[in-house]
Input
Amino acid sequence: MSSATELPLYRSSSFQLAILLTLVIWGISASIAIAVVALTERTLLNRVSQSIDDEVSALIDVTRNDDIELWDWFDEDIQRMLIDTESLHALEPEAHLTAYISDLRDIVASPDATASADANARLYLLGVDGDFEPARWFGELYIALLFEEVPDELREDLSDTVERQLRRLPVGKRWATMTPSARLQILVDALLREPYADERCVVVLDNRTAADSTVLLDNPVVSRNGFFVLELAPHSVLEARQRRCWVRQLSLPDNRVLLIGRVETELVDAVQTIRRWRNMAIVVSLLIAIALGALLGRRIFARLHDINALTAEIRAGNLERRLRVSERRDDFDTLSENINAMLDQITQLMDGVKQVSDNIAHDLRTPLTRLRNRIEQLTLVDSPRREDVVVLAEQADGVLATFTALLRIAQLERGSRRRHFISFDMVAVLREVVDLYDVVFAEHGTVLSATLPDPFTVHGDRDLWMQAFTNLLENCLKYAPDSTAVTITVTAIGQRWRIDVRDQGPGVPDHALGQLTERFYRVNADRTLPGTGLGLALVAAVCQLHDAELTFINDGGLIARITIKNTV
Amino acid sequence: MNILIAEDDLEVSSYVAKGLREAGHSVQVVDDGDTALIEASHGSFDVLVLDRMLPGLDGLSIVKALRATGNTSPVLIVSALGEVDHRVEGLRAGSDDYLTKPFAFSEVLARVEALGRRRNTTSDAPTLQVADLKLDRLARCAHRGGLLIDLLPREYALLEYLMDHTGQVVTRTMLLEKLWGLNFDPQTNIVDVHISRLRQKIDKGYDKALIHTVRGMGYVIRD
Output
């Protein structure tokens, strides 16, 4: 036969459970991690892209608006400086500009491609390669080159000149005369001067500069939310170090391209970090899930294995073994308890069957043998006497009565009669029994009396209780014939009723009290009295069937005490 | 009376049939359920004695079939299944009495005769009379020779049962079962004690005893 050890692992339900648990735990935790990260990332990126989009649209608006007050775009330092430079001396801007332009042209011609492209862009921005009008580009020049790209020796003079010119020219007018690209450059610079400018990335590309790799597009990747990821060369126009940027691409009307976005700052790093954590969480949760699943599965497997091993052992015949019940009181403990209780009952029943068969062998074989012997004797007589035959019939009846009683007790112990339980008045049953038997006791000179309370209801089998009380009373008749009184007393003890049947007989030896309800048990002296030896066994079986308690007490006679729960 | 016995144990059936014939009844014996149903439906029997477990249709099915077709012949079920549940089952199926194997022949005879007679007489007459003993069911009292007999309720019930079966033997088991609802055999002779109490009141002091003991069977009240 199969046993736990021969079961392949994959068929073991605890193993399947462990796998299932692992998957469930992992699935849940990984989903949570993925969802949280995706949500955070989305929120972050949305916020970034929203602010960039706002900037882009603001830029576009501003560049298209001729009436913008350029003054507003200058930061406070510049504004203050512009106001305080009354004593600025006259400057020859054209001279400086010519020198600056030639300077830029030198750089264009230089072998350094990046610097060349950079200078080229400057020239283009200044409009040198197109319509060269100093009056027009003056403001652009100032803004675009402010303090940065101009050679040091030029800067002071240029600055002074610019200041003077600015003071002379109305700002609005200058803005109105600028090209859109110049306006854009001004705005770009203004943006770069704002706080957090380090996070910004603003680049204007034309096809040429793009082709010249002025701005190094290092594997531009279209990221989510419509961002390009690009690497800006370290010595790009406005920045000295290489930066990784997330930018939006915006096509300008003059075929140029504005890239505007954010340097991959801590904010973006945060997304990466979160993603790393997420991946780690998925891996770790898998490990935890496996560990938990294995632990649980192992525990269940171990308990089941214990139960299987032990039941196999018990089945092999070792009926005394019992399952371990732990302190935890979990469902396995309940199972173990139930199995143990079942085993107790089986053992008890087996003992019972064994005892019954022993007793049958003993108590039925004797009368049957006697009967057989008598019949044999009668076969030797030609015409048997009628009285002899009557004795035979009586003996056969005795054997049959014993047999019937045994079967009935066995049936009671199976408990199947509980199905037929009804609610009835126990007091009425007692009254009826007393009513039937008082005349019988009177014949023996005994007074049978009963102290009965108000009716109380018992859920059970009325016929069986009739028989139980009848048996108790008949025992009084049989074993306490000299009693002057037999009394039945019913008292309420809390939620229970105590029914005492008390005689005034000799009682039984104390050592026999516990054995009275055993089948075929007869106190030695009583062996000679007629009877099946099953009367009290049947009373006990009836009590057990009804969860009632049966005890015997020696107290100036014998008290048979039945304690039964009062059910409504 | 005309009696049908359906019993597959030939020893039992011949033993019962022989006894019933000796008691003056006409008996037909069949040994399987199907034949029993056919015979019972066609013949006119005063009492049917059916074994519960028969080859073919079982006893309970036969009773149900008969009752379904309006046949009200009294039925005595005889069975080795003797627990109260089985008994209740048998009576619910429509049988009139239930006797557990093993049984004494006297028990069968008494019950068969009780069943046969019940069919022919209406037993709800307001008064019953045996010789000069009168029982008034409405007043629940008895007179003998015009004198009121003081009876306890239990004694009245016993007398009523006996008089309801006047001239018929009533066995101890019948009294226990039908009068007192005891479906088991008490070891003491409580029936005898109760009868003797009743006799004290009914027969003592009168020339003619009405309650008679039938040896090995039970009691009968008759003139």
